[in-house]
Amino acid sequence: MNQTEKQSSAADKTPHSGQPVVGVIMGSSSDWDVMKNATDMLEQFGVPYKAQVISAHRMPQDMAEYGAAAYDSGLRAIIAGAGGAAHLPGMMAALTEVPVFGVPVPSRYLRGEDSLLSIVQMPKGIPVATFAIGEAGAANAALHVIAMLSMTNATLREQLRAFREKQTNTARAMTLPPAPKN
Questions:
Q1: What average pLDDT does this structure show over 95-103?
Q2: Distances, alpha carbon 163 to alpha carbons 46, 75, 136, 156, in Å
Q3: pLDDT over 60 at 144, yes or no
Q4: Is 28 annotated as a binding residue?
Q5: What per-residue string of b and e applies to 159-174 under the rule 16 or more CB within 10 Å gives b?
Q6: Per-residue pLDDT reduced to its tens digit, 28-46
Q7: SS3 state of residue 20
Q8: Are 133 and 115 within 8 A, CB to CB?
Q9: How far apart are CA 104 and CA 135, in angstroms?
């Protein structure tokens, strides 16, 4: 997978305006189907991001360089998705002071439960905010990042409020089919 970069003005009050403020990384291009849910959400809110493959096992030097440069390059959050042993989110958290949001990607044999446990069981002092396995986890990781960024960006905060209000109104408008008559 090639690197994907989207720029927007929604994060105007973040450092390096116009540059990516969120890194979306994954261990393999096969993780893209899940991680695209994070980038879709970031795009919906106009948050500039850069998505790329950074494998903890196959590219350890690249991973270390990415983590070391994350803050100075303008990143204020990293969404890291990984399957299997899922070392990427935890290793990235150990390499940078930028908050890391871990997304367990479903694995072939254990449905992502191995990934979830690997990401959530970080040792004291190296936190990774961990989300649900799969698509919902990727979208929620992005929403959590958006909420964090909105604390210093009134425009983004208003977009998030509107998004949540729309969800609420959609749920309130839901109807159930009539109960069958016995």
A1: 98
A2: 13, 24, 16, 10
A3: yes
A4: yes
A5: bbeeeeeeeeeeeeee
A6: 999 999 999 999 999 999 9
A7: coil
A8: yes
A9: 9
Q: What is the largest CA-CA distance in the chain?
A: 67
In the predicted structure, residue 18 carries a pLDDT above the cut 80: no
Residue 101, beta-bridge partner list: 79, 129
Show the domains of the chain with their CATH numbers.
Answer: 22-171 (3.40.50.1970)
Look-up of token digits 């196959």: 58
DSSP string covering 73-118, please?
Answer: TT-SEEEEEE-TT-HHHHHHHHH-SS-EEEEEPPPTTTTTHHHHHH
pLDDT at 176: 94
58, 11 Cβ separation under 8 angstroms: no
Asked whether the predicted pLDDT for residue 109 surpasses 90, the reply is no
In which element (H, E) is residue 6 found? Answer: strand 4-6
Alpha carbon dihedral 99, 118, 32, 67, in 10-degree steps, equals 40
Q: Which residues are registered as beta bridge partners of 24?
A: 51, 79
DSSP 71: T
Total number of residues shown for the chain: 182
Cα 114 to Cα 105: distance, rounded to the nearest angstrom: 9
Q: What is the mean pLDDT of residues 165-171?
A: 97
Q: What are phi and psi of 69, to 5 degrees?
A: -95, -5
